[in-house]
């Protein structure tokens, strides 16, 4: 299955996402800030998917998206944003900057699993 980096400043969200996705057989790495996420990406270049909170202290969601794409140059690397942000203009900017999907918090585990499967499984088939 996929190697996934989950980045959120909320320990509860990290735990929920980790449990939901590890139950599907994915290898989960976690980071509690954008800065630590970038370090994890540098030391783990084979990560398939980043699940990023958008509003965190320090590095902004857009900066994290852009910097992640500079570190992981593989076109199969995808980014899914998990955020309470609902403004269409914010979502559009993130998608323009390189995000591949957006889920609004609170979310259902089934929704998360479905979105992750759509992003990682087509590439696994090739």
Automatic annotation (TrEMBL):
Gene3D superfamilies: 3.40.50.2300. SUPFAM superfamilies: CheY-like. InterPro entries: Bact_response_regulator, CheY-like_superfamily, Sig_transdc_resp-reg_receiver. One of its GO terms (biological process) is phosphorelay signal transduction system. The modification 4-aspartylphosphate is found at residue 53. The keyword Phosphoprotein applies. Transmembrane segments: none annotated. It comes from the Bacteria. Keywords: Phosphoprotein. SMART domains: REC (SM00448). The keyword Phosphoprotein applies. Residues 3-120 form the Response regulatory domain. This is Response regulator receiver domain protein.
